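**Backbone description:**
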Amino acid sequence: MRNLLILGAGGHGKVVADIARQMNFWENISFLDDDENKIGKYINNYKVIGKLNDYIQLKNKYDYAFVAIGNNRIRLKWVEILKTKEYKIPIIKHNSTVIGFDVNIGIGTVVMPGVVINTKTKIGMGSIINTSSSIDHDCYIDDGVHISPGVVLGGNVFINKGSWIGLGAKIINNITIGKNSIVAAGAVVINDVPDNVMVVGVPAKIKKKLED
């Protein structure tokens, strides 16, 4: 049995389903979503068959499950739940990606079209590596991180758990981004970023503190 449940039928879920389809691995793909208006409808030709908590009763029909929820904390929470229920949690990876030698990618992570990940980089579970982003050598991306489209990371960049790197942001070599922080779209980061802050601008500076 190679049937895939995708938790989350929003815009991100559509993209995940499309990449999963192109992988030509799953026999059946279905969505779960808590929006009652979506239940019973088709998203990209795949049916929304129930709410998120229905994953419990569907274990005998679906052996794989993937969380396609944009919010980092919620996505990671659901990955942890699925692990305890012994679902197989795949890596969803578009066939146009370029991945170097000895790159490690965690379960529940999606790698979207046009991504380049260079050698010796490690990516944790439940992360989003979005369209046409570039991650250079020896980077470490922790669990539940979102690397937005067009982001460029230099070598030896460390991004802690739950952080979000916005559209087109650039981070130079040897920088650490703290946990649950946000790098705003278009920012250029040349100094380390602490936990729980938003940084903006060129060069990036702290705009505000975020709740832990």
